[in-house]
Amino acid sequence: MDRLQGMKVFTRVVETNSFTRAAETLDLPRASVTTIIQNLEAHLKVRLLQRTTRRLSLTADGAAYYERCVRILADIEETESSLSQAQRAPRGKLRVDMPSALGKLVVMPKIDEFHERYPDIDLMVGFGDRPVDLIQDGVDCVIRIGTLQDSSLVARRIGVFQRMTVASPLYLEQHGTPQSIDDLQDHVAVNYFLGRTGRVVDWSFVVDQQTVEVKMRGKIAVNDAEAYVASGLKGVGMLQAPRFMALPHLRSGELVEVLSDWKPQPMPISAVYPHNRHLSPTVRVFVDWVAEMFGRCPLFSGQEEVERKCLPTTAPESAPAVRRSVPTTATVEVELAV
Question: What is the pTM assigned to this prediction?
Fold first, then answer.
């Protein structure tokens, strides 16, 4: 049997926890994956996986074999890559995923630059605000906004995501303009909820170098950035919109910035990929290119003051949150990492 192929298939089955998902990401029939694992176990004369109708689990021998396979495959890939990189440009398929609005409005208009520079890379670009599982979904690299919590992944900061508190002239005419954070108790918002959990995202402001979170009342909540801004333009409520999406409407007068003395907390924009010893050439050049592209754009490169206030790219290993009430009449909380 092809033992190298057997190792690749075995590690992918373990990482995806599924014969079917492993077959999909390896572009193999599911029956072939099953046969390869059976032949591998027969060759080794040990059982590597415990299979039931509902789950897979590693045996003790399987766990030890998996750790060895990961190291062997990484060494082989690194050796082959070091020999071939000097001889040819990066090539092959590269699957990436990114937030819809950021991808459609910022990345895709410049994607021809990437193809001109790397014509032998075939890109598959997915759009969505719901986080994907890089291993199980077979994604090589994702662009994400916010602090990375998963220590098994690598996050390289490529830009700073800024928001603005805005409202339409129609809304302000009907409800008045808030002059302080306390005034928000008398206003309604277009809320944004997380697609995976359904949790509504609180508003945030930087006040005296602390992050203040405000729970806003709202008549509608969405989980799409473009629908979020569109609702605000209709006067449904106030919103904390991405700066790159709000600016054209500010220039046209369709939106007005409010509470400009208290900016929302800036967040990192990161290219995220698995924590491997060797980073594939296709992922490396894409990350370098997208970092260069964001760096050329003033909206995302981040001024020094914005960078200083930005949330960290990755979460500290131990950062308990301390919450305290803010003495205002609105429902406001502060969360500090200590």
Answer: 0.68
